[in-house]
Amino acid sequence: MVKICCIGAGYVGGPTMAVIAVKCPAIEVVVVDISKPRIDAWNSDTLPIYEPGLDEVVKACRGKNLFFSTDVEKHVAEADIIFVSVNTPTKTRGLGAGKAADLTYWESAARMIADVSKSDKIVVEKSTVPVKTAEAIEKILTHNSKGINYQILSNPEFLAEGTAIDDLFKPDRVLIGGRETPEGRKAVQALKEVYANWVPEENIITTNLWSAELSKLAANAFLAQRISSVNAMSALCEATGANVSEVSYAIGKDSRIGPKFLNASVGFGGSCFQKDILNLVIKINDYQKSRFVNRVVSSMFNTVSGKKVAVLGFAFKKDTGDTRETPAIDVCKGLLGDKAQVSIYDPQVTEDQIQRDLAMNKFDWDHPMHLQPTSPSSVKQVSVVWDAYEATKGAHAVCILTEWNEFKELDYQKIFNNMQKPAFVFDGRNVVNADKLREIGFIVYSIGKPLDAWLKDMPAIA
Ligand SMILES: NC(=O)C1=CN([C@@H]2O[C@H](COP(=O)(O)OP(=O)(O)OC[C@H]3O[C@@H](n4cnc5c(N)ncnc54)[C@H](O)[C@@H]3O)[C@@H](O)[C@H]2O)C=CC1
Ligand SMILES: O=C(O)[C@H]1O[C@H](OP(=O)(O)OP(=O)(O)OC[C@H]2O[C@@H](n3ccc(=O)[nH]c3=O)[C@H](O)[C@@H]2O)[C@H](O)[C@@H](O)[C@@H]1O
């Protein structure tokens, strides 16, 4: 019989383990906690937390294959899989106070696991933790390992309070991250088999450890931003006579936005949602563009002065010639600021438009034509050409700024042969097959993907 032990009998540990127990009669589940009153309550008729449906689930399996205990060490020692679902509050003092997560409880749980274990263990991060916590936990466990093999998995929880049991019975997805080694994959599979007792296979996502840890934080950030956006609209509604419920309904009908989580409120609460300013979205967008330019410059020995940089794509998205607020403007201006020679190709944007865009002040495009400069002085460091091969000839680097389909089909071997070496590709839209380009010899940067060894060694990005 597989034995599961969960450290932490709180809002997550209690309901999650009760659902595992009820759905997996062949698994023994023990929930342990250092708080005796909490454990006593879990063993009583008055459970320590209120959740619709929780009483029934606990009553169905408590004393059969679900147990609550304060004998933490005994049950950790006996378990095959240990979930750690202790609290991870915000630090209130010291370095990072008010911002960083306080991992004191996590660390003491990990040290206790290392102390009492006598057999191999799968240790599952259930708590919400900063990215890379698994690495720290791994270090604590393996430095004290006594020959025991530990596999760390990240299995963040997405339940919301008030709907915990429904969310656990029918999760949108279960996410399991693990090491990309044979032992890591085996551990991921073992945990997947637990959830597969009631969750459809296609809803169980497996990833690497860091993607799983980050996805949890990202999901909460997206949800919090959504509420903040609606709440910002509520102030606009009050000022204009619009009705926020009507606005939410109307925008929620857009299938890309969807109808959920669009209720204006006095502000969101709960322990997890904190970063809530609408401004953040704009700041992040500007940051994303300057980060791209910094990548280009820092990768190319910290200067692009006098170097030819090919820009493929100028429109704000594919299949249009529209350039209003295209990120290409800011990226090109950044490269020109560092004195690059920029050679631009876009299948639908004219040379006149590109020169106009690069000469114009930000937001001027949104004023009537007669207020805009009639004959913009062309920017000398810029040439606009008729195809991608011409743009990249003799270049040190290629920057892909629009996701035109034709950029996927280019003959990159031919492009490589005609470029300066080392030849760089900075893919701002994730359109190229980075592995194939690396085989040809390119140094490739793809937005949000693991970095080339070359790029990793270059100076940090501002
Ligand atoms: N509350 C929620 O809706 C959700 C919470 N989370 C995350 O899950 C984690 C747990 O959250 P909650 O269950 O709400 O916290 P909680 O505070 O209700 O429960 C944590 C429990 O861990 C126990 N504990 C702490 N250190 C221990 C140790 N060394 N040994 C044994 N027990 C120990 C505490 O006594 C407490 O009962 C947090 O990281 C939280 O961010 C994730 C998704 C949803
Ligand atoms: O990581 C966590 O702890 C959890 O945080 C939230 O769950 P929770 O905080 O329990 O509850 P929510 O339903 O998300 O509500 C959070 C706050 O936002 C408010 N809210 C929510 C939705 C909405 O449309 N408007 C709004 O103001 C709620 O009233 C509440 O104050 C997430 O929804 C869960 O997916 C996540 O697992």
UniProtKB/TrEMBL annotation:
Under the heading SUPFAM superfamilies, the entry gives: 6-phosphogluconate dehydrogenase C-terminal domain-like, NAD(P)-binding Rossmann-fold domains, UDP-glucose/GDP-mannose dehydrogenase C-terminal domain
Q: Which GO molecular function terms does the record list?
A: NAD binding; UDP-glucose 6-dehydrogenase activity
Pathway note: Nucleotide-sugar biosynthesis; UDP-alpha-D-glucuronate biosynthesis; UDP-alpha-D-glucuronate from UDP-alpha-D-glucose: step 1/1
Where along the chain is NAD(+) bound?
A: 8-13, 33, 38, 86-90, 127-128, 161, 272-275, 324
* Annotated ranges, domain UDP-glucose/GDP-mannose dehydrogenase C-terminal: 310-434
- UniProt-listed Enzyme Commission number(s): 1.1.1.22
- One GO process term, biological-process aspect: UDP-glucuronate biosynthetic process
Q: Which top class of enzyme applies to this chain?
A: oxidoreductase
**What UniProt keywords apply to this chain's record, in alphabetical order?**
NAD, Oxidoreductase, Phosphoprotein
| Known catalytic reactions | UDP-alpha-D-glucose + 2 NAD(+) + H2O = UDP-alpha-D-glucuronate + 2 NADH + 3 H(+)
Per its UniProt entry, which superkingdom is the organism in? Eukaryota
What does this protein's UniProt record list under function? Answer: Involved in the biosynthesis of UDP-glucuronic acid (UDP-GlcA), providing nucleotide sugars for cell-wall polymers.
The protein's name: UDP-glucose 6-dehydrogenase
Organism name: Hordeum vulgare subsp. vulgare (Domesticated barley)
- Primary gene name: LOC123447527
